[in-house]
Amino acid sequence: MRRVSIFGSTGSIGQNTVDLLQRQGGADVYDVVALTGAGNIKLLAEQARALRAEVAVTALPERLDDLRAALSGSGIAAAAGPEALCEAAARPCDWAMSAIVGAAGLEPGLIAARHGGVLALANKESLVCAGALVEETCAAHGTRLLPVDSEHSAIFQALQGENRAAVERILLTASGGPFRNLTREEMRYVTPKQAMAHPNWEMGARISIDSASMFNKALELIETHVLFDVDPEQIEVVVHPQSIIHSMVGFRDGSIMAQLGPSDMRGAIGYALNFPERAPLPVERLDFATISRLEFVAEDRARFPALRLAREVMAAGGLTGAVFNAAKETALDAFLEHRIGFLDMSDLVTDVLDALGAEAAATAAGYGLAEVMEFDAAARRIAMRRVNGMAATAEM
Ligand code: NAD
Ligand code: MG
User: Quick check: CB of 351 below 6 Å from ligand 1?
Assistant: First the structure.
């Protein structure tokens, strides 16, 4: 039986992954090793019981007793805290889903990358923070890295059977988010609640807000650069509000391969779960007569500075991505807590890059996790100082 683990099983990607495992035979077909979550103990325990997992882990040490109680009589081991997450990741498995949100997903993902099976990667932050390290770890252990982000799954699918040297450009599609048509002035006073309402995709709160600010597309630009080994100039962002085309690859003969599908992450998760096969998936079928036309708009770097910042990060290289991501995560927390405004997020990230970018860019290849986490921590410290300054100014 195929041994599978899901890191972040209680999240949006995690729940969709559990859903597919269950539809494909659940515990009768898969040997489920580890499931992990954070505060939603009830759901974590339900998933662990349904899939007869070996171990369930909450990231929150103070919730261990609750998890033990919820699992009593099941024979499933309970554990808690960041170290327990890493121990769970060290348990051998053939297929691991990395779906923790944020840089917190990096270390468990790196450990799971040592088993030589498949690392299904939803956690784009790990590629932004430490792309080379993730790729080196997979290569060193013969682990196959399969992208789960819908755009990157689309690009990966469009590249099957193709000669990589014939790739001319990658067309990364973006829905544009809920504020696609707002002016900068109109964006100034939007609330976290408005930013969370994504027009097409149902996702976790953090990635939904990142979609509204285009920081999600910024992370995805860097993710594309890492995964497909293309120069930044070869990657174009195309705003496609319908999210029907999930991304495209343009070849040197002028041909373009696109992957299309409904806005349902089970498409990309199911592809990574069944690769290289295609199994039947419970997603809606597209009806082109109803769709009638596909719409595209050019990207707007003036209204969405995150896209410009991503280009700067790619050009700088080294560990600039770790600084960028940590600053972005801190800015997002501050926005969620109503401490800074929507537009302050990109200003804050710009400031942190100004302060730490050059040093991070100078990091030579062959860096380790410790260096990544040092830049991550330093960027969060500077970002917090800036948040406190911005919040104080706003109160005056
Ligand atoms: P989510 O917020 O719905 O779920 C996050 C999961 O991580 C939960 O299981 C939560 O318990 C766990 N978690 C949160 N903080 C943690 C911590 N500090 N330590 C350990 N575990 C922690 O997020 P999501 O929308 O499912 O996104 C997960 C990842 O997948 C993100 O990297 C996101 O960018 C990526 N992604 C998501 C989607 C989507 O449709 N939701 C699409 C593409 C990529
Ligand atoms: Mg995406």
Answer: no
| Predicted TM-score (pTM) of this structure | 0.97
Measured in Å, residue 9 CA sits from the centre of ligand 1 at 8
Tell me the ipTM for this assembly. Answer: 0.99
The neighbour count for residue 128, using CB atoms within 10 Å, is 27
Question: Measured in angstroms, how far is the CA atom of residue 7 from the centroid of ligand 1?
Answer: 9
Q: Which residues participate in the annotated binding site for NADPH?
A: 10-13, 38, 40, 123, 125, 204
Q: 208: Cβ below 6 Å to ligand 1? A: no
Dihedral angle computed from the Cα positions of residues 191, 209, 125 and 241, in that order, rounded to the nearest 10 degrees: -150
pLDDT digits (tens, 9 = 90+) for 85-132: 999 999 999 999 999 999 999 999 999 999 999 999 999 999 999 999
Q: Between the CA of residue 163 and those of 139, 158, 276, what are the distances in Å?
A: 20, 11, 18
pLDDT at 394: 72
Q: What is the CATH number of domain 153-262+286-395?
A: 1.10.1740.10
- Alpha carbon dihedral 58, 69, 45, 90, in 10-degree steps, equals 40
Cβ 332 under 6 angstroms from ligand 1: no
Q: Where are the domains of the chain?
A: 2-147, 153-262+286-395
What is the Cα 273 distance to its own chain's centre? 17
Options 3.40.50.300, 3.30.70.141, 3.30.240.20, 3.40.50.720; CATH for 2-147 is: 3.40.50.720
Query: Distance (Å, rounded) from C-alpha 138 to C-alpha 280?
Result: 28
Q: Is 8 left (phi over 0), alpha (psi -120 to 50) or beta?
A: left
Long-range CB contact pairs, 49-56, < 8 A, 24+: 49/74, 49/76, 50/18, 50/22, 50/26, 51/18, 51/21, 51/22, 51/26, 51/27, 52/27, 52/76, 54/91, 55/79, 55/88, 55/91
Q: Is the CB of 13 under 6 A from ligand 1?
A: yes
